[in-house]
Amino acid sequence: MPRPRPCPRTRTRPTAAQLVLGSATVVFSTPALLLLTGATGMPGIALTGCVAMALGLLVALVLPPARPGDADLPDSAGRPVPAGYGAPGARSVSRPGAAGPPGR
After folding, report:
1. Apex CA 68: angle with CA 80 and CA 63, to 5°?
2. 64 HSE (CA, 13 A, CB side)
3. Residues annotated as region Disordered (predicted)?
């Protein structure tokens, strides 16, 4: 049986940034909404929590997903530079007692 082709309108998995910002929105908006509304009863607190969750979901969905080439870095990014590969135009410094060029 052939595999069904995915619908082109389906969303991809959420990125780490979407998850973090959505969660942070829920965490920070819940106490703020509780303080603003002054809710003390169970129904008010539950409604405030639901509103905060909906706000966090909205923030996570509105944030644009990462483009395929955003995380691509050059191969040498983060790797140490091998010895002898200094900056362009840098002068090499000889150590005392090190072997110099012949004929000196």
Report:
1. 110
2. 4
3. 68-104
Total number of domains in the chain: 1
Work out the burial of residue 56: count CB atoms within 10 Å of its CB; fewer than 13 is exposed, 13-18 middle, 19 or more buried: buried
- Rounded Cα distance between 52 and 73, Å, is 36
Alpha-carbon distance 39 to 46, whole Å? Answer: 9
Has residue 32 been placed in a domain?
yes
What would you measure as the largest C-alpha separation in the chain, in angstroms? 92
41 falls within a domain = yes
57 belongs to a structural domain: yes
Give residue-wise pLDDT tens across range 33-88: 999 999 999 999 999 999 999 999 999 888 887 666 655 555 555 566 566 666 56
In a domain, 5, yes or no: no
